[in-house]
Specification:
It contains 14 helices and twelve strands. It has about 375 residues and is of the alpha/beta class. The protein starts with a helix and ends with a helix. It binds ligand P1T. The site of ligand P1T has 19 residues, from helix 3 and helix 4. Ligand P1T binds next to helix 3 and helix 4.
């Protein structure tokens, strides 16, 4: 089966009990047993729930993996992966990351003795150079949040393999429609399903997809033992969103291409970060089937110009998150990456004039017009300065 068909059918057979064509929301905490320990495969919804199983099966299928696990958020999914580490272990991670992932590394796992070394993810050799005898896991985002930098998945997978490390890829920005890290040698794929996978800004959820049986067993054990599972209704909403992932991603991609191009040509814009216009374009072409719907750019000026731009937009909402059908704008320094200390932000290029767009699937001309008028408003501030 091809991607579009799997998104609609994998794990989503007609309901065995009733024939319901669409997977029902099994809104139940527990399952009645015929005798002690005799049941129909489900006993308690933290351990397993049929609606969640359908989603987990579908996600595994789309990432070309053997096993999927769904969690209460993207960060809960990341936590479940990190649970396989022990005090003293080292993680090597890309230095451009979602601020919440950085916070999880620095303020939850680092105090437990799990240390993270950050490297420039665009430089594959940097991963090899950072490895100590304590290294256990390489963790990357590609494209990264918020600077849309790329890391070479195949190259880093080779480094991980040579050194006996596990390799996890947060595939939230690209989605399996555009990039399939397990096919390129990664061991673990992580998602914030809150974003493109669910796609309608109405669910917070996460997922982990793996091939290896033992790894699956460990993470599934943690899922049940720690309990941050995705509930039945959120699993169902995510399944519903997933059915249109392919067609949504095509439109996100088409709209973002048009917007990135127009930003690049605009005198009020200094730089544009977008895989399709990046110095890493060849790598993007090699490992991605499309560039996605995310763009970040530096506006001429500083905080005031950026603020004027984000508050002048009429169609784009000023909001955290990304990947929904509606366009969003965010200001990383004070929103998604506020948990990264100011000096670290500066070092990493998350400056006061950086703006991030999650380009939705509205009409491209409407979006271009909206950006044009907001840039004109921002230019007025520059004139005053
Ligand atoms: O919000 P949550 O579902 O827990 O997912 C965390 C997460 C993980 N990985 C990436 C790449 C992410 O972008 C996120 C969440 N990001 C935002 C909320 C944001 O606006 O960037």
């Amino acid at each position: 089966m091809k991607f579009e068909t799997k998104a609609i059918h994998a794990g989503q057979e007609a309901d065995k009990a009733t024939g319901a064509t669409i997977v029902p929301i099994y809104q139940t905490s527990t399952f009645t047993q015929d005798a002690i320990g005799v049941h129909k495969g489900y006993d308690y919804s933290r351990s397993e729930n049929p609606t969640r199983t359908a989603l987990e099966t579908a996600l595994a299928s789309l990432e070309n993996g053997n096993h999927g696990l769904a969690f209460a958020s993207g960060l809960a999914a990341a936590t479940a992966v990190l649970s396989i580490l022990k005090p003293g272990d080292q993680i090597i991670a890309t230095d451009d990351l979602y601020g919440g992932t950085y916070r999880l590394f620095e303020h939850v796992f680092s105090p437990l003795g799990i240390n993270v070394t950050y490297v420039d993810g665009t430089n594959t050799d940097a991963f090899a150079e950072a490895i100590t005898e304590k290294a256990k896991l390489i963790w990357i985002e590609t494209p990264t949040n918020p600077l849309l930098k790329l890391a070479d998945i195949e190259g880093i997978a080779a480094v991980a393999k040579q050194n006996g490390l596990l390799f996890a890829v947060d595939n939230t920005f690209a989605t399996p429609y555009f990039q399939q890290p397990l096919n390129l040698g990664a061991n673990i794929v992580v998602h914030s399903v809150t974003k493109y996978i669910a796609g309608h800004s109405d669910v917070v959820g996460g997922a982990v997809i793996v091939n290896d049986e033992k790894l699956h067993e460990k993470i599934k054990f943690y899922q049940n033992a720690a309990g941050a599972i995705l509930g039945p209704f959120d699993s169902w909403l995510t399944l519903r969103g997933l059915k249109t992932l392919a067609i949504r991603m095509q439109k996100h991609d088409e709209n973002a291409k048009a917007i990135a191009k127009s930003l690049l040509e605009h005198p009020q814009v200094l730089t544009v970060n977008y895989p399709g216009l990046s110095p890493q374009y060849q790598l993007a072409k090699k490992q991605m089937k499309g560039f996605g719907g995310m763009i970040s750019f530096k506006i001429k000026g500083g905080y005031e110009e950026a603020e004027k731009f984000v508050t002048s937009l009429k169609i784009f909402s000023l909001a955290e998150s990304l990947g929904g059908v509606e366009s969003l704008v965010s200001y990383p320094a004070a929103m998604t990456h506020a948990s990264v200390p100011p000096e670290e932000r500066k070092k990493r290029g998350i400056t006061d004039n950086l703006i991030r767009l999650s380009v939705g699937i509205e009409n491209a001309e409407d979006l271009l017009e909206d950006i044009e008028q907001a840039l004109a408003q921002s230019a007025q501030i520059s004139l005053v300065h």
